[in-house]
Amino acid sequence: MRPGAGAARHPAITGALALAVAGTLGCAAPADEGITLRFWAFGREGEVVAELVPEFERTHPGIRVVVQQMPWTAAHEKLLTAHVGRTTPDVAQLGNTWIPEFAALEALAPLDSFVAASPLVDSAAFFGGIWVTNRNAGRLLGVPWYVDTRVLFYRSDLLARAGYARMPTSWPEWRRAMEAVKARGAPGSFAIYLPTNEWNPPILLGVGAGSPLLADDWQRGAFQQAPFRRAFDFYLSLYRDGLAPAMGANDVANLYQEFARGTFAMYLGGPWQLGEFARRLPAELQDKWATAPLPSEDGREPGRSLAGGSSLVVFAATKHREAAWQLVEYLAQPAQQVAFFHLSGNLPARREAWADSALARDPRVQAFRVQLDHVAPMPPIPEWELITSRVIEQAERAVRGGVPADSVLAALDRQVDQILEKRRWLLARARAERP
Amino acid sequence: MNRAPGSQAEGRAGWWFVAPALTLIGVFYGIPVLAAFLLSFTDFDLYAIGNLDTVRFTGLGNYAALLHNPVFWTALRNTLYFALVGGPLSVLVSLSAALLVNARLARAKGVFRTIYFTPVVTTLVAVAVVWRYLYHPSYGLLNYGLGQLGIGRIDWLGDPRWSMPAIIVMAVWKNFGYNMLIFVAGLQNVPAELHEAAALDGASAWQRFRHVTVPALAPTFLLVGVLTTIGNFQLFSEPYVMTQGGPLRSTTTMVLLLYEEGFRWWRMGVAAAISVVLFLIVLAGTALQIRLQRRAAS
Q: Quick check: B244 contacting A, CB < 8 Å?
């Protein structure tokens, strides 16, 4: 070894030691002078929420927030393993479809008493359809942070060429518009793109037709019942009549490019795609695309979409429930919701926040505003995500495999009944125990 | 047999020496394996993590459900496809590479050995990123090359017919270096005198390979064959990072299905049943291989 190398290494080692010591002290210190909250947030939200934290720390002396950002793809597993390993954070962002699952695990702290005592958080200030997704078995387990739902994105120029100044509001008219778009489109082009490997299109149509999706207190599949059956026939007819291509999400290399080319004129998109369409479509198309609430079966009101988004939850295992609630309460304020919208593009869950000019003035965002008053919650049971994977499999059998709707929906109900067997048993047992 | 006095004490001491290793194996291997076996007879799931008394003993229910699950059969078929095509291909490529780097005419053997071994030690995720580019339907180097030969575009990872071959090629490329090293070690143990004697008797290079090298390598073949088979049946990371089991389940393997059931849906009972079935298949495959090898040797 060169003589200098050892000496040169010393400062590094000393530095590392100093850091380690400081680290230990840093962890120990808040025990007597304050609280450190661990806050898990995912994807882009995790990156930007860190910018909202300093103001919280300033207004809440004694509470320090450590934001841990992780990718969405790892979030679910990480949360579950954290629960099993008893290392859950104090506060986390949670997709509201995951709430039933974590409720079944008894992992979340009920927030009813906090909300009742809080002058700042009132259920009436939030979109009702979104708020209910945070309730489970009579308890409130989360506060909506941002909302997510699907609306129709469409090429207004292609629709106008087909003779429609605006998006029709009923299914029969919507279908005629699709036929007209298809008839005037270039060969090889379609009216709408509904990826065959996504559960959203058939489920959205089903919800729009008034299907409860699951029957008997979510104990059995309701996919063979009339409402879903009507929706599924409508869905299949779009492929059968060549209005939609039988392609999955992987078969379309670049969604935005194909939309720009006019390969399809309509698409069911979420709020995060507002930014993507604005960024990725060429400049000359920027005034030629629009959004509209989903059409409904009879056209009287906007059709129903699904209530999605993320909530803020407090984990039951936290030692700082009060401080954790303060962070949730803070992030649920209209001012923070607007700031968060400007940072991330996620739509606020609170109605007051929509008065912000950027939201109120943009007609494309307003379609979401209208849609959010017409949303249905997904079945609040932990098995729902597994059920959606079966929906995709069976819908693909019908679309690509040409299997008749009857046998596909019967198979789906059979599979769903099998998945829900445990739930039926648990409910029966609970009934038997209650005299 | 006449034992020396003290051999019993020696035996006891021997047990003490292996005790730490045995304890570790027992705690970190034996107990989990036993637990998984027991788990496979229950319906342990998400509810059970929340509340243990919701676990029910279901006997062979999980196994019966597996037999009726079309995805399980797809996964089994995909795994066999990978093992039966990818296994021999991998052994062939490793052996060829070993012969090349071991050839007497080869220069800079160390350099080539290192180059061939590099994929084995490279992180799979990094490899996957590069291979995804190679396989890209419009910009991929592979399709560009095929285009030069007048062959049309192939959507390697998006077409259910091509996805498994694409995974096989990548997995063989990623892993052949390991077996190559074992073969190189085996080749270096082939006595040079035998080759010389055969050459003097007028044997051609192919005859020498066929009748000197291959028989001498028999134990190496067995080792490589068994290791590769076991590895192939446990195929997981390559499809996990490249295709997530798609398109249309064409790259869903047994372990990927197990992972999905266990860690995505938390149906631990079902996942454990898959692992037991997989264990039995690997056991049978390995036993068959050893038997075939013995028969060939005798």
A: no
Distance of residue A27 Cα from the nearest chain B Cα, in angstroms:
30
pLDDT tens per residue, range B57-73: 999 999 999 998 889 99
Distance from CA of A77 to the nearest CA of B (A): 7
Separation of alpha carbons B252 and B162, rounded Å: 14
Q: Could you state, in order of their start, the residue ranges of all structural domains in chain A?
A: 23-148+307-372, 151-305+380-430
Long-range contacts (CB closer than 8 Å, 24 or more residues apart) made by A234-237: A234/A171, A234/A175, A234/A205, A234/A209, A235/A194, A235/A201, A235/A202, A235/A205, A235/A395, A236/A398, A236/A399, A236/A405, A237/A175
- C-alpha–C-alpha distance, residues A201 and A207, integer Å: 10
- Contact (Cβ atoms closer than 8 angstroms) between residue B281 and residue B274: no
Domain tally, chain B: 1
A250 close contact with B: CB closer than 8 A: yes
Task: Find residues 3-42 of chain B whose CB sits inside 8 Å of chain A.
Answer: none
Per CATH, the architecture of A151-305+380-430 is what?
3-Layer(aba) Sandwich (3.40)
User: pLDDT at position B78, please?
Assistant: 95
Q: Which of A73, A97, A250 to mutate to test the interface with B (most CBs of B within 10 A)?
A: A250
DSSP state of A315: B
Tokens 């299949």 map to which residue? A236
Residue B116 lies in domain? 69-297
Q: Which CATH architecture has domain A23-148+307-372?
A: 3-Layer(aba) Sandwich (3.40)
Q: Which of A76, A77, A253 sits opposite B138 (nearest CB)?
A: A253
Q: Do A104 and B50 touch (CB under 8 A)?
A: yes
Tokens coding B198:
């055969």
* Matching fold, domains A23-148+307-372 and A151-305+380-430: yes
Give domain status of residue B179, yes or no: yes
Please check whether residue A396 touches B, CB under 8 A. Answer: yes
Measure CB to CB from residue A250 to each of B50, B158, B265 and give the nearest one. B158
Residue B30 lies in a domain: no
Strand partners, A350: A126
Cα(A170)–Cα(A168) distance, integer angstroms: 6
B49 and A105: CB-CB below 8 Å?
yes
Packing angle between helix B87-102 and helix B109-121, nearest 10 degrees? 150
Taking CA atoms, what residue in A is nearest to B65? A418
pLDDT in tens, B148-166: 998 888 888 878 889 999 9
Peptide bond connecting A61 to the previous residue in cis, omega within 30 degrees of 0? no
Give, in order, the Cα–Cα distances in Å from B8 to each of A99, A122, B13, B15. 62, 79, 9, 11
A385 and chain B: CB distance < 8 Å anywhere? yes
- Whether residue B268 lies inside any domain: the answer is yes
Report the candidate in A285, A288, A354, A384 with the shortest Cα–Cα distance to residue A146: A354
CATH number of the domain within which B209 lies: 1.10.3720.10
Residues of chain A with pLDDT under 70: 1-33, 250, 435
Q: B52 pLDDT band (50/70/90 cuts)?
A: confident
> What was the ipTM of the complex prediction?
0.72
Could you tell me how many CB contacts below 8 A there are between chain A and chain B? 41
Domain-embedded: residue B5:
no
Interface test with B, best of A73, A79, A80 (most B CBs within 10 A): A80
Pure H helices in B138-252: 141-148, 160-188, 192-200, 205-208, 214-216, 218-233, 237-242
